[in-house]
Design a protein that fits this description.
Elements (H helix, E strand, L loop, with lengths): L8 H23 L15 H4 L2 E3 L2 E3 L8 E2 L5 E8 L2 H9 L10 E8 L10 E2 L8 H12 L12 H21 L8 H15 L8 H13 L3 H19 L4 H12 L1
Helix pairs in contact: 5-6, 7-8, 8-9
Length: 260
């Protein structure tokens, strides 16, 4: 175990990078070549970059989820989530659980964003939404060392231009929403527009779940509890899609709506 307070940050970065690179190389040697798809994968030397996943305030190399390739228009969502095991849940329902004794499960999970045919490759997005095609390609090449040829990046001409306009608008909406208080009615309009743009881009509207939760808070401040309940049910559905029904986020949201 490394004591963070004992070593300079630059030393820790070097040690962690070496450990992760070794783990990635071992995974490559054990499993063979990374799954092939429409993307040009980085060489083995770049596995520490392409096969290291962030989880909470750390990073790790997973035998399965780290091997999922990138697409700007993904078909699965990768989540670092907190869940409670079935045995723990049964104890809670019986009232047998002792306060403070249960342990939550920290997991990497992949959830399908839509129906996926048998044999199709799974893709997650390594980038945040709201980037034009040229900027996405630049970041992917600079950080991960490969060129993206996914369906969204393969657009050309007027279709690519229209997509870039939508992506830039998504970035502007996210910036504006971050500045608004829950009492501002603009939250409703901007969140609705954001989900419409995500639909147009072929991206999951569930990615706007945080904004939908803010819409719930807005309607609560206005005393419109029927509308608030409907919005919260939508937020729960989004979170179930992204994280699974047994995720802590989903259970917390259900508790909130039950209290209302």
């Amino acid at each position: 175990m490394l004591r963070v307070g004992t070593y300079p940050a630059r030393v820790l970065r070097t040690v962690v990078h070496t450990i992760l690179a070794s783990a990635a190389f071992a995974l490559h040697a054990q499993k063979g070549e990374r799954a092939r798809g429409p993307l040009a994968c980085a060489p083995v030397a770049d596995w520490a970059r392409t096969c290291t996943l962030c989880c909470w305030q750390a990073a790790a190399v997973y035998a399965i989820s780290c091997r999922v390739n990138h697409a700007c228009r993904p078909n699965v969502h990768l989540s670092s989530r907190v869940a409670i095991s079935l045995a723990m849940r049964e104890e809670q329902q019986r009232g047998a659980e002792k306060p403070g004794t249960h342990t939550q499960l920290y997991e990497q999970t992949l959830h399908a964003l839509h129906a996926i045919a048998a044999g199709d490759e799974l893709f997650v997005s390594y980038l945040d939404v709201g980037l034009a095609s040229a900027e996405r390609r630049r970041r992917i090449q600079a950080k991960f060392g490969f060129d993206c040829h996914c369906g969204l990046c393969a657009l050309s001409g007027a279709e690519r231009a229209a997509s870039d306009v939508r992506q830039e608008r998504l970035a502007a909406i996210a910036s504006r929403l971050a500045q608004l208080e829950s009492t501002d009615a603009a939250i409703i309009k901007l969140t609705t527009e954001r989900m419409r743009l995500l639909d147009r881009e072929g991206l999951p509207r569930a990615w706007a779940y945080n904004d939908v939760i803010r819409c719930f808070n807005h309607w609560c401040t206005k005393g419109a509890y029927v509308k608030a309940r409907g919005v919260m049910l939508e937020a729960i559905a989004h979170c179930e899609l992204l994280f699974g029904g047994d995720a802590k986020t989903v259970r917390d949201l259900r508790d909130i709506i039950e209290e209302r």
